[in-house]
Design a protein that fits this description.
Helices cover 36% and strands 17% of the residues. The chain is an alpha/beta fold.
Length: 501
């Protein structure tokens, strides 16, 4: 089996190891053979110039063994106590194994609360990058001792994806007890097929069954790995699911993909690089044959061609939403386009849920009729908000329509000169106080079965919930008039739309 004579440029690699790969599911004894193989793999990767971060679960599992408790408790305080007991022993175990190769490690314990503040998030990023530049292997785990449901990542699959996004990693390896993503549980279904390449996590969900995978000790399963892959690939990180039983396969997989990027199937006696766009259309078996070695067993999730900006990734995945902003389908259609810049004008807002302050993360919900919005009304919403978003805040004045959907606004056709005149009439002097009676009536949304609110994204609020509720459905020129100030014409910014219109 040949290998490339020259390896690619050094990469930043995040490796996630689950509890079931660290301790035995029944005896809770550390699986030293796997742990030792992981350490040897990390040492090998570092010898090739790669930077490596290890995301390690297992604190509670090690705590169970230490306290001789037969099974994972259900009470939060008991799990936190076991995590406190096990974390020290777990990091000591890693330190002992890496110490055999004189490799320095560092313990990094995080909660979602730690990185929900932008300053603390950047501090965590700087710390991880500094450790990597010092030649240290950071070992990241969730701080289960103090985590509660509101500030938990939920599982270390998600934590590893956010970590890879934070440090702009090249690869994220999710090591598990199977060698890839299957259409169903391969341990129970002999007809299950492994998927070699996944282009879209959203598209693949309908083809796979993930409900039966996962161990009694861990909190994740294959579904959490799909979530992690979605987060990481959105940030431009190539994500791989591989078997933890043979960690050395990581080196083979990296070599394989480096060769795949630099070699194409010869068609006229020459080889040329494969561009990312063409790579998704290549017959991998044919390419593997041309490379003279078989494809290592794994499933690879292709990264987004246009990665999410750091601020949007932080907003979308690390912040716990404090409330929700409900928008119409027209605003959703505009925000789904990249040129929108992820910014929402008040004209597209139907209402808010919950109480939140300016600067906090909010869910973006789309308001839809449960039985389907009439075509004419839906088209009117999209045209209306599209026209508003395409203009400056001081162009057409929006007036509520008396149609069946009162939140849908219609544009008054104005010439350039007419627009200025209307604006003069609309912008009352600052000395005039606008009362609630003067605010155009917007139909109150029924919170009953005739409406569905579907989360389609997240963003950062520029105004608090009461202020957004006050200006909802109006032209942004009214913000100063109603609130007394206007920091920005947009009520929500840095919006990441996960479900396109």
């Amino acid at each position: 089996m040949s290998r490339p004579a020259k390896r690619g440029a050094p990469s930043t690699i995040v490796i996630k190891l689950g509890t079931s790969s660290i301790v035995h599911e029944e005896t809770h004894q550390p699986l030293l053979s796997i742990l030792s193989a992981v350490v040897e793999t990390v040492i090998s990767l570092r010898s090739h110039g790669h930077k490596v971060v290890l995301v390690s679960s297992g604190a509670i599992g090690v705590g169970l063994r230490t306290m001789d408790i037969p099974q994972r408790p259900k009470g939060l305080s008991k799990k936190q106590a076991l995590a406190a007991i096990g974390q020290g022993r777990l990091i000591a175990l890693w330190d002992n194994l890496f110490g055999q190769f004189d490799q320095r490690i560092a313990q990094v314990l995080l909660t979602r609360g730690d990185i929900s503040d932008r300053t603390r998030y950047l501090n965590a990023v700087n710390t991880l990058n500094e450790l990597l530049s010092m030649g240290v292997v950071p070992i990241v785990n969730e701080n289960d001792t103090i985590s509660v449901s509101e500030i938990k990542f939920g599982d270390n699959d998600t934590l590893s994806a956010i970590t890879s996004s934070m440090i702009h990693a090249d690869y994220l390896f999710l090591l598990t007890d199977v060698d890839g993503l299957y259409t169903s549980n391969p341990r129970k279904d002999p007809s299950a097929k492994k998927l070699d390449v996944v282009i879209s996590v959203t598209a693949i969900r309908a083809q796979v069954s993930t409900s039966t995978l996962g161990s009694s000790l861990g909190t994740g399963g294959m579904e959490t790995k799909l979530i992690a892959a979605e987060i990481a690939t959105g940030a431009g990180v190539t994500t791989v699911i591989a078997s933890s039983k043979q960690p050395s396969v990581i080196v083979d997989i990296i070599d394989y993909h480096i060769a795949l990027k630099s070699t194409s199937v010869p068609t006229s006696g020459t080889a040329s690089p494969i561009t990312p766009q063409k790579l998704n259309q290549v017959d991998l078996d044919e390419v593997a044959a041309s490379l003279s070695w078989p494809r290592p067993p794994h499933t690879v999730f292709k990264p987004a061609l246009i990665p999410m900006r750091d601020l949007k990734a932080w907003t979308s995945h690390t912040l716990y939403p404090a409330g929700s902003v409900i928008i119409d389908s027209g605003a959703h259609a505009v925000l789904s386009r990249r040129e929108s810049g992820g910014r929402l004008l008040p004209a597209g807002v139907l209402g808010v849920r919950g109480s939140f302050a300016s600067g906090q993360a909010v869910r973006i919900l789309v308001h839809r009729r449960a039985e389907g919005v009439p075509v004419e009304t839906k088209e009117l919403e999209q045209v209306s908000y599209s026209n508003v978003a395409a203009t400056t805040p001081c162009t057409p004045v929006l007036e509520p329509s008396a149609s069946v959907t009162a939140s849908v606004t219609s544009l008054v056709s104005l010439s350039r000169s007419g627009s200025s005149a209307s604006l003069s009439d609309d912008m009352i002097s600052d000395s005039h106080t606008v009362t609630d009676d003067e605010i155009p009536l917007i139909e109150k949304m029924d919170e009953c079965e005739i409406w569905d609110c579907v989360e389609v994204g997240r963003g950062l609020a520029n105004y608090n919930s009461a202020q957004i509720s006050r200006v909802r459905g109006l032209n942004s020129a009214r913000i100063v008039q109603l609130l007394g100030y206007a920091d920005t014409e947009y009520v929500v910014e840095n919006i990441t739309i996960r479900v396109a219109a």
